[in-house]
Design goal:
InterPro entries: Cyt_P450, Cyt_P450_CS, Cyt_P450_E_grp-I, Cyt_P450_sf, Cytochrome_P450_monoxygenase
GO molecular function: heme binding; iron ion binding; monooxygenase activity; oxidoreductase activity, acting on paired donors, with incorporation or reduction of molecular oxygen
Family: Belongs to the cytochrome P450 family.
Structural class: alpha+beta
Cofactor: heme
Shape: globular
Number of helices: 18
Strand order of the largest sheet: 1-2-8-5-3
Bound molecules: protoporphyrin IX containing FE
Distance between the termini: 50 Å
Helix content: 40-55%
Protein name: Cytochrome P450
Length: about 500
């Protein structure tokens, strides 16, 4: 088992640049390989930059190249996978022959060797360490914290008040991660964390595409803002770890990480301290906390924000949801983990929101060896991308793909089922697939359903007329410029206008 992160973390940072990989059978020599057709890379650039909803550009690629397309982008060979069978084959069957793709290579400057970005044995050992804190009975114990955090956040809400709902959801989910995973009360700092992360997302969104490396080396104001936000978060995370180290250990994940790091230092696994006094073992804790803070809050906050917006635009679906919540959530303070099975419609609303606006909208991988896919050879070092946004809206796999129809997830027995819409397995993958599937999946469903049920019991936020909500395709798919809404109490506001309707009316 690996006891410390890979040693190349102590070498000069590669600035996220991948190592040049060559096909193993022809070392040092360029190879000529046949490649599937695809759009010119310049068109992808223009498509992503100019399209009204940038990820929708991948739908256009799927339309012209329904299975596999190839293009050259910034000197890279990029393969776009648009068919679920190929996505399954790559991520599941060939999972061991891949490493993470470009976005996560880039975001290493922030997350270091955390679970999201690390590879190989170090990744596997970290996953074994972290996973138990995000499963089973631990979720049951987190449920009351999630419900309380939602009620605390809404304590300051008033009918008619205008708020940025995306920021509200971020502050709420930061507080939940702080208390459940780090045993730390982050409520006083949650807005600060959410804002710094927001700036990071903006900064990274402009620096994701191949060729944008230059942007990170040129001293622009945007770059300075990005690095300042990284520094702010870094200071906050280190302070939080130091504070937690001084308190008695508890059942939280940060305690587990601190124990593991003390163990690694004891067995000589954490190498000597660097100039800043930080050992590899210390850095490993910092990287994991930063990863869980980012991955554990931003995605769920985005899913909730999109769900609110879609409910506001679809009064029939909102009424359908409210009927369930009013029947099940008689007293929000007493909502528990056991109630999750009684809230299939709430879960369906989230599933449908993540279908239309998947917080993780693109998955990337780099091949470590030559990979055969659909009759083509993808040479080692190729970039493979697939867009959940495109797969989730592809008319080949979904009826009425652009409609918000949460009832499509409810079976004839009234229960929620991920396979109920009848799509191929890999046509719906908000949490990814294969060995690197989201480790926080159960946490996210628990939090998303409980928070939505708690808040929708009383509130029906409304986007002001005339305000256009547009997705920003950053690391996650978040509403560009936030989500300004007017808070409306359902009992006194237009929430009443929603007519009660059964699930069939929404199919
Ligand atoms: C709606 C909420 C969420 C969505 C949509 C989501 C989505 C994803 C996706 C798509 C991946 C795979 C990325 C890839 O294959 O490249 C992933 C990985 C990950 N997620 Fe989530 N996530 C959510 C919530 C969470 C939560 C609540 C946590 C932690 C508490 C979390 C922690 C992680 C971590 C650590 C990984 C890396 C796992 C690994 O590589 O082994 N996520 N997530």
């Amino acid at each position: 088992m690996a006891t410390s992160p890979p040693s190349d973390r102590t070498e000069p940072r590669e600035d996220g640049q991948p190592r040049r990989l060559r096909p193993a059978h022809l070392p040092g020599r360029p190879v000529r390989v046949a490649r599937p057709p695809g759009p010119p890379g310049a068109l992808l650039y223009a498509g992503l930059a100019l399209h009204r909803e940038p990820p929708a550009y991948f739908l256009r690629i799927a339309h012209r190249h329904p299975r596999l397309a190839h293009l050259r982008l910034g000197g890279e060979h990029v393969y776009v996978l648009s068919h679920p069978d190929l996505v399954h084959e790559l991520l599941v069957t060939r999972g061991r022959d891949l490493r993470k793709g470009r976005t996560l290579e880039r975001i290493r400057m922030l997350l270091g060797e955390g679970l999201l970005t690390s590879e190989g044995e170090w990744h596997r050992s970290q996953r074994r360490l972290v996973q138990p804190a995000l499963q089973g009975d631990r979720l049951r114990a987190y449920a009351p914290v999630m419900v309380r955090a939602a009620r605390d956040r809404a304590a300051g809400w008033r009918d008619g008040l205008q708020v940025d709902l995306a920021r509200e959801m971020s502050a709420l989910t930061v507080a939940v991660v702080g208390e459940t995973l780090f045993g730390t009360d982050l409520r006083g700092r949650s807005a600060e964390v959410a804002d710094a992360l927001g700036e990071l997302m903006d900064g990274f969104s402009r620096r994701m595409l191949p060729g944008a490396d230059l942007l990170l080396s040129v001293p622009t104001r945007g770059r300075a803002r990005l690095f300042a936000a990284v520094d702010r978060l870094d200071t906050l995370v280190r302070t939080m770890i130091a504070e937690r180290r001084d308190r008695p250990r508890g059942p939280d994940l940060l305690s587990t990480l601190l124990d593991a790091s003390a163990g690694a230092a004891g067995t000589g696994g954490g190498s000597d301290a660097g100039a800043d006094g930080e050992t590899d073992a210390d850095a490993a804790v910092r990287d994991e906390v930063m990863t869980l803070l980012l991955a554990g809050h931003e995605t769920t906050a985005s899913a909730l924000s999109w769900a609110w917006w879609l409910l506001d635009r679809n009064p029939e679906a909102a009424a359908w949801l409210h009927a369930e919540i009013d029947a099940v959530v008689t007293d929000p303070a007493r909502l528990t983990y056991a109630d999750l099975d009684r809230l299939p419609r709430t879960r369906a609303v989230l599933a449908e929101a993540m279908r239309l606006y998947p917080p993780s909208w693109i998955l990337g991988r780099r091949t470590l060896v030559d990979v055969e896919l659909d009759g083509w050879t993808l040479p080692a070092g190729s970039l493979c991308v697939t867009s959940q946004y495109a797969l989730h809206r592809d008319p080949r796999f979904w009826a009425a793909p652009d409609a918000f129809a949460p009832a499509r997830w409810i079976g004839s027995d009234g229960a929620f089922g991920e396979g109920v819409p009848g799509q191929p397995r890999a046509a719906y993958l908000p949490f990814g697939l294969g060995a690197r599937i989201c480790v926080g999946l159960g946490f996210a469903w628990t939090e998303g359903v409980l928070v939505l049920a708690t808040l929708a019991r009383r509130w029906a936020p409304q986007v002001p007329p005339g305000h256009r909500v547009r997705p920003q395709a950053a690391v996650t798919l978040r509403p560009s410029g936030g989500m300004p809404v007017v808070l409306r109490e359902r009992s006194s506001g237009p929430g009443r206008r929603h007519r009660e309707q059964g699930p069939d009316s929404l199919r």
